[in-house]
């Protein structure tokens, strides 16, 4: 193959090694070193890393380290006298008050932030996007729950007042107890109905295909609250109310997540927040009202009393079982002894006949 001057220059450029970087040169240097030289180099690098930099020393204006102070400057400052500045330094300048006066600009910022928060709360509870029919019927559905809760608080206050003064405002102690025994199952039963209704909404959305069909995932949202709500009818009052409160809170988070996923209308999470807040407040009021009279009234028992009563019932049942078992053993022993005596008598008769 013929080679020209241009082809020779081009071939030299291809065969020429590329320039090495700093890292490559360092690597080649370390590859050519002996193990002893490598270890010594590493030790030197460690010492360099451990050595503090010059900029880490505290130095004065003259550039000397901090342990060699400028004595002349200290003498000069020591010979002088401090000048008082009452306008700048005073007893109030070094005091931080708990309640300090804000400037007009800071006050405007605080008022603006509070106004913005108030507008956010107002928009949240206004529920402008919620259909009017759903809003009115939902609010009406909360009224029975709130009425039973307020009645529980009033009756509890009536019973407490009777125990403290000996006389009630409207009802007697027996009447207040009887009304309380009627209202409590109504509140728990109505709560179970509401929870079942909240679960059934997801079945309706699945039937309508809102946000697509999600099969078992959305059907599960309708089954769980019903399975949790109805067993509370057989629980002690405090346990039932706390369980329903937890179920209502769980359903709110489930509904809010469903709205975010597009399984429910966008306004549904805000709507559910307001209703859940009202129902949760009613349950808390009922628990507080019943807690006021547990310590004053022996006929009204709390959850701990129910547990202790259950334990006592179990011990009584065990004692009865033990007594019954011992009685049966005693009867069997007596029967065995009687059988042995009869056998002995029969044997004696046979011997006498012989």
Automatic annotation (TrEMBL):
Q: Where is the composition biased (Basic and acidic residues)?
A: 327-337
Q: Does the keyword NAD apply?
A: no
- Annotated spans, Disordered: 16-42, 327-354
Tell me yes or no: is Kinase among this UniProt entry's keywords: no
The record's listing under InterPro entries reads: DUF3429
Instruction: Tell me the keywords, alphabetical order.
Output: Membrane, Transmembrane, Transmembrane helix
TM segment ranges: 188-207, 219-242, 270-288
Where are stretches of biased composition, namely Polar residues? 21-42
Identification of the protein by name: Mitochondrial inner membrane protein 1
Question: What lineage, starting at the top, does this entry show?
Answer: Eukaryota, Fungi, Dikarya, Ascomycota, Pezizomycotina
């Amino acid at each position: 193959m013929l080679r020209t001057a241009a082809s020779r220059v081009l071939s030299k450029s291809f065969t020429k090694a590329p320039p090495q970087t700093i890292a490559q040169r360092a690597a080649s240097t370390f590859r050519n070193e002996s193990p002893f030289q490598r270890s010594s180099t590493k030790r030197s690098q460690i010492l360099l890393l451990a050595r503090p930099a010059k900029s880490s020393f505290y130095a004065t204006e003259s550039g000397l380290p901090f342990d060699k102070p400028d004595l002349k400057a200290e003498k000069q400052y020591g010979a002088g006298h401090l000048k008082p500045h009452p306008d700048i330094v005073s007893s109030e300048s070094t005091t931080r008050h708990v309640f300090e006066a804000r400037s007009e600009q800071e006050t405007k910022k605080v008022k603006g932030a509070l106004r913005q928060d108030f507008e956010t709360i107002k928009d949240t509870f206004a529920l402008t996007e919620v259909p009017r029919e759903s809003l009115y019927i939902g609010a009406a559905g909360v009224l029975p729950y709130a009425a039973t809760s307020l009645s529980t608080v009033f009756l509890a206050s009536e019973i407490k007042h009777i125990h403290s003064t000996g006389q009630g405002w409207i009802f007697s102690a027996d009447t207040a107890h009887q009304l309380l025994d009627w209202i409590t199952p109504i509140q728990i039963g109505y709560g179970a109905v509401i929870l079942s209704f909240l679960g059934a909404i997801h079945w309706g959305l699945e039937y309508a295909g809102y946000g697509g069909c999600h099969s078992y995932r959305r059907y599960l949202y309708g089954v769980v609250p019903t399975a949790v709500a109805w067993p509370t009818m057989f629980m002690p009052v405090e346990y039932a109310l706390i369980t329903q409160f937890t179920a209502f809170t769980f359903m709110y988070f489930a509904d809010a997540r469903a709205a975010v996923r597009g399984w429910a209308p966008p306004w549904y999470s805000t709507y559910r927040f307001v209703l859940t807040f009202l129902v949760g407040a009613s349950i808390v009021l009922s628990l507080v009202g019943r807690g006021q009279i547990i310590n004053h009234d022996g006929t009204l028992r709390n959850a701990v009393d129910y547990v202790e009563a259950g334990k006592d019932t179990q011990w009584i049942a065990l004692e009865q079982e033990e007594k019954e078992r011992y009685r049966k053993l005693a009867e069997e022993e007596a029967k065995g002894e009687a059988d042995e005596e009869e056998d002995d008598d029969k044997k004696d008769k046979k011997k006498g006949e012989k």
